[in-house]
């Protein structure tokens, strides 16, 4: 154990185990989490080669092998609780999305939420047993954006009268054919090819495909269809299915994100998910109670992503803070030993806010999950009243927490200096695997605009005298104040006072956006144009805070005091996240703090060190021997074969 890190733990002023129990929810939950963790981490079937030293295809193969083992083990140990599956999966594939994520995270939940009992028997049971492997295909090459209900322009015609049609006409179509009781699915244009779905490229044999429903000559907007894409015995693509991998990406190397072109693919009538919307055998369309229910799985994952932001931050600051406790640099005072870099105020100022945010997001993630479970329970009972708030909350928190975490991971990486740039630190991987959360499940700006839409509606209800409930109740209570009204009193030591100032600021910003829309409306006469011209106000928190200059200085001084208070407990606070070394997989973030010897050991495994003179370098040796520098290429090749 590194002596610095030992000393850090001795200096802590609280019981780490108790805090871990609070983060987990209870001592029993901590015990169970550790039990699951040891099932995976001590299981030789999950041994792996360090993916940093593998090619993409090797990484995919290794991930598939581990995922298949995972499914067998989940069955063997009878683990079926979604939280426990999720936890088990995160230990099997720490920090790395894997080919079955979409099957577990979106295919199964979409069936649970949108399939009829008959469809549950036909699809969910085999999918649970991994005979069916599914993905969720919504995004297309040309559009990540969809409308949940039909618009007047939605047309079933072929592309011959382009100017009269909108982009919605060129989306994938599912046209009901009553003669055969089938839907015929087509991707009418290149841009309507499904693009991005995880596990689609090579792994899945079924896809939930989101397409425009056409029946009896009418278009009814976005609906979900279960489309078999590969033969269940041979895994070869079925007729009319053009499918494959979209190629290497920034990260997600283990995942076969794919493309899918549908060419007159026929599926039976009862492959449309019909818990809510229905098509009768004669082609009659039965409306769902709410068109937005089609988007339910995205709301589920958005809610989950809030907790993922917390986990990514917890990992990043554990690595950076432990490393900063064992790393020494630059004398603070001449002649004295070099201090731990964690003693530099600037290092604390980088890392302690990340630590605080990791804690805050952990609790926000728990709140989001409870809210999701409560409101989706109501929805199952037929009460849809909570859906708008759930949508606004999950969209806004998904965007807010992922943006914040995305920036903070990079702060942690840079705070580790050069070693943060090495893949051995794990920080580059955490970043590349996390950063697409800002894009997928709804691009963050687009999600913020959805939340803003809800806030503006709530604002106008509050101005109309309605008493609002839930997360927007502050709009009824607070009267937005013009900046000229001066600054509100603030006690920065008092949480209630801080919350009040935040609420007032939020109310002011909503009012600002509403005013902008009103003004734009007078100029542009179209609600949509006025909305777009106010989009910056809608999304961005204004730079005008509500604090006076002396108050801002007071905050700054208080932050410095808090840094000093936190310093003795910094390592203990990250220890409380209880991230097992194997799961953290970071040379810099090791629990024992023995960084340097393991950094050296890790580097020696680099494939470039497999031989002292890599084969490619023999050409240099040959060139040197033949003194060919200056006239090398064609002749050096023939010389190399002759020597
Ligand atoms: C049983 C289970 C077993 C095991 C599972 C257990 C554990 C899990 C284990 C493992 C899980 C593993 C990993 C996690 C899984 C996956 C993560 C990994 C990878 C991620 C892969 C990524 C996938 C994707 O990205 S899928 C594609 C996502 N795409 C999007 O999100 C598109 C975003 N676009 C939209 O949402 C819409 O197009 C839109 C932007 C909202 C616009 O739509 P529309 O034009 O219809 O909307 P309007 O603006 O006109 O608004 C109309 C109206 O509707 C309201 N609205 C909109 N959306 C919603 C909604 N979702 N819910 C409710 N209401 C909504 C909107 O507010 C308007 O209301 P008003 O008219 O009242 O104002
Ligand atoms: C790693 C990864 C995995 C994915 N997995 C899946 C999957 O399994 N299944 C699936 O279906 N999809 C998947 N996706 C696709 C993902 O859901 C989309 O990329 C995402 O919804 C964003 O859509 P887009 O790419 O079309 O972005 P665009 O919408 O084209 O965004 C580009 C820019 O335009 C701006 N913009 C767009 N619309 C508006 C607007 N109305 N107002 C203001 N600004 C706007 C955005 O803010 C952004 O800056 C995945 C993507 C990634 C990166």
Automatic annotation (TrEMBL):
Residues 295-456 form the Acyl-CoA oxidase C-alpha1 domain. Residues 494-544, 545-617 form the Acyl-CoA oxidase C-terminal domain. The keyword Transmembrane does not apply. The keyword Transcription does not apply. InterPro entries: ACOX_C_alpha1, Acyl-CoA_ox_N, Acyl-CoA_Oxase/DH_mid-dom_sf, Acyl-CoA_oxidase, Acyl-CoA_oxidase_C, AcylCo_DH-like_C, AcylCoA_DH/ox_N_sf, AcylCoA_DH/oxidase_NM_dom_sf. It is found in: Peroxisome. Pfam families: ACOX, ACOX_C_alpha1, Acyl-CoA_ox_N. Keywords: FAD, Fatty acid metabolism, Flavoprotein, Lipid metabolism, Oxidoreductase, Peroxisome. This is Acyl-coenzyme A oxidase. It comes from Takifugu bimaculatus.
């Amino acid at each position: 154990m590194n002596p610095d890190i030992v000393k850090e733990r001795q200096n802590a002023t609280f019981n780490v185990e108790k805090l871990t129990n609070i983060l987990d929810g209870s001592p029993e939950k901590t015990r169970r989490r550790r039990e699951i963790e040891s099932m995976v981490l001590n299981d030789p079937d999950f041994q792996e080669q360090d993916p940093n030293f593998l090619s993409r295809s090797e990484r995919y193969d290794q991930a598939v092998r581990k995922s298949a083992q995972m499914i067998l083990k989940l069955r063997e140990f009878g683990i079926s609780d979604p939280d426990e599956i999720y936890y088990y999966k995160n230990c099997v594939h720490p920090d790395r999305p894997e080919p079955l994520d979409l099957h577990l995270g979106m295919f199964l939940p979409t069936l649970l939420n949108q399939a009829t009992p008959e469809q549950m028997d036909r699809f969910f049971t085999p999918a649970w047993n991994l005979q069916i492997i599914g993905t969720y295909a919504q995004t297309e090459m040309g559009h990540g954006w969809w409308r949940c209900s039909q618009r007047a322009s939605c047309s079933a015609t072929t592309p011959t009268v382009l100017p009269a049609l909108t982009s919605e006409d060129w989306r994938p179509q599912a046209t009901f054919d009553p003669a055969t009781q089938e839907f015929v699915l087509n991707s009418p244009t290149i841009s309507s090819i499904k693009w991005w779905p995880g596990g689609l490229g090579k792994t899945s044999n079924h896809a939930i495909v989101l397409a425009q429903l056409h029946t009896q000559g009418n278009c009814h907007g976005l609906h979900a269809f279960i489309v078999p894409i590969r033969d269940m015995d041979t895994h070869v693509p079925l007729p009319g299915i053009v499918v494959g991998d979209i190629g290497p990406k920034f990260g997600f190397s283990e995942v076969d994100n794919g493309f899918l072109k549908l060419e007159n693919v026929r599926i039976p009538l009862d492959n449309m998910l019909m818990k809510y919307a229905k098509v009768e055998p004669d082609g009659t369309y039965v409306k769902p109670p709410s068109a937005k229910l089609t988007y339910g799985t995205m709301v589920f994952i958005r809610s989950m992503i809030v907790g993922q932001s917390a986990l990514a931050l917890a990992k990043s600051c554990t690595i950076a803070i432990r490393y900063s406790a064992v790393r020494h640099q630059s004398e603070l005072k001449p002649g004295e030993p070099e201090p731990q870099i964690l003693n530099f105020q600037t290092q604390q100022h980088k890392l302690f806010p990340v630590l605080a945010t990791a804690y805050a997001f952990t609790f926000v993630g728990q709140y989001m999950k409870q809210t999701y479970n409560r409101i989706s329970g109501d929805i199952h009972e037929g009460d849809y009243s909570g859906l708008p708030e759930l949508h606004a909350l999950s969209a806004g928190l998904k965007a807010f927490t992922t943006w914040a975490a995305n920036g903070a991971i990079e702060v942690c990486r840079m705070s580790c200096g050069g070693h943060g740039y090495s893949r051995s630190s794990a920080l580059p991987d955490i970043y590349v695997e996390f950063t697409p959360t800002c894009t997928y499940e709804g691009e963050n700006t687009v999600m913020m605009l959805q939340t803003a839409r809800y806030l503006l509606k709530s604002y106008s209800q509050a101005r109309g005298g309605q008493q609002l409930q839930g997360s927007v109740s502050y709009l009824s209570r607070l009267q937005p104040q013009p900046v000229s009204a001066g600054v509100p009193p603030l006690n920065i030591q008092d949480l209630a006072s801080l919350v009040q100032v935040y609420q007032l600021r939020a109310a002011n910003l909503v009012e600002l956006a509403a005013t902008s829309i009103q003004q734009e409306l007078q100029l542009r006469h179209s609600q949509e144009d006025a909305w777009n011209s106010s989009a910056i106000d809608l999304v961005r928190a204004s730079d005008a805070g509500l604090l006076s200059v002396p108050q801002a200085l007071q905050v700054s001084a208080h932050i410095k005091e808090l840094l000093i208070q936190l310093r003795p407990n910094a390592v203990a606070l990250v220890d409380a996240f209880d991230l097992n070394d194997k799961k953290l997989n970071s040379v810099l973030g090791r629990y024992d703090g023995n960084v340097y010897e393991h950094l050296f050991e890790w580097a020696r495994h680099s494939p470039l060190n497999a031989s002292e003179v890599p084969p490619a370098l023999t050409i240099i040796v040959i060139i040197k021997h033949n003194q060919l520098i200056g006239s090398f290429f064609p002749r050096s090749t023939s010389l190399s074969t002759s020597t």
